[in-house]
Design goal:
Elements lengths: L2 H27 L2 H8 L3 H8 L2 H13 L18 H18 L3 H13 L3 H27 L7 H17 L1 H4 L5 H4 L4 H16 L13 H17 L5
């Protein structure tokens, strides 16, 4: 193993230990000594790779979201020959699978701590990640309005509403788990339930008369999306 590979493996191990520590204790309660011990390195090594606790915290969030992965900015391989409906349904498919198959649950715990501690890291995420993703979705809706496929007075609000719904739905699963309405909300296959729901209601809200289904996305596009999602999932496996 080369020195570069050893350095990368050590950094990933530190990130994995740090995300667990920040998820359990927040930024203020997390201890660099504990992270070093969990990683099996000395504290000086943490500072060598990340400089400070603040920088390590930011890098954990960036890595969990995917900003540090070169493939994430091109995860939505939209074929320009597709209709706007096919493009948007492909994006919805990809976003749902990323949230369920790739994004680490510790990320949501860290963000909850982040809000509680007033660190406002979400501003960085909105600027560098969520904002561009929303604009990508908005551009498809605007195109659909121009072609007559969609009807909406506010394309950005249309896409923002379903993204916020998806995030809220995922984050609140544990809250509803022990209630009698859990099965009606989440069922036995959460990912498929939310995908089916979004396909129906997002396009209904955009004035599409005929129900949109997974089979409406060309098989070749699904295969490309699945391949890229799997690659990102493998690249982001911090359990070394």
């Amino acid at each position: 193993m080369s020195k570069a590979q050893i350095n990368q493996e050590t950094k990933l191990k530190i990130l994995f230990s740090a995300k667990k520590e920040f998820a359990l204790h927040g930024f203020a309660g997390a201890r660099m000594d504990a992270i070093a011990k969990q990683t099996g390195v000395n504290k000086a090594m943490l500072h060598y790779y990340f400089g400070s606790k603040e920088q390590l915290y930011k890098d954990v969030i960036i890595y969990l979201v995917g900003l540090g992965l070169k493939n994430d900015t091109s995860i939505y391989p939209i074929n320009e020959s597709l209709t706007s409906t096919q493009k948007l349904s492909s994006m919805i498919y990809c976003i749902v699978h990323l949230h369920f198959d790739v994004i680490d649950h510790d990320f949501h715990r860290i963000i909850a701590w982040d809000f509680a501690e007033g660190k406002n890291s979400m501003k960085m995420l909105v600027k560098d990640y969520f904002g561009p993703a929303l604009e990508r979705l908005e551009s498809i809706v605007i195109e659909g309005v121009k072609t007559g496929e969609f009807k909406t007075s506010n394309p950005m609000m249309s896409v923002w509403s379903f993204i916020v719904f998806l995030i809220t739905y995922i984050n609140q699963e544990e809250i509803y788990r022990e209630t009698k309405i859990y099965n009606r909300l989440y069922g036995n296959d959460i990912k498929q339930n939310i995908l089916d729901f979004l396909f129906v209601h997002v396009f209904q809200s955009l004035g599409v008369a005929n129900p949109v289904k997974l089979k409406d996305i060309p098989l070749g596009v699904i295969e490309i999306l699945n391949k890229q999602i799997l690659e990102i999932k493998n690249n982001r496996n911090l359990n070394l």
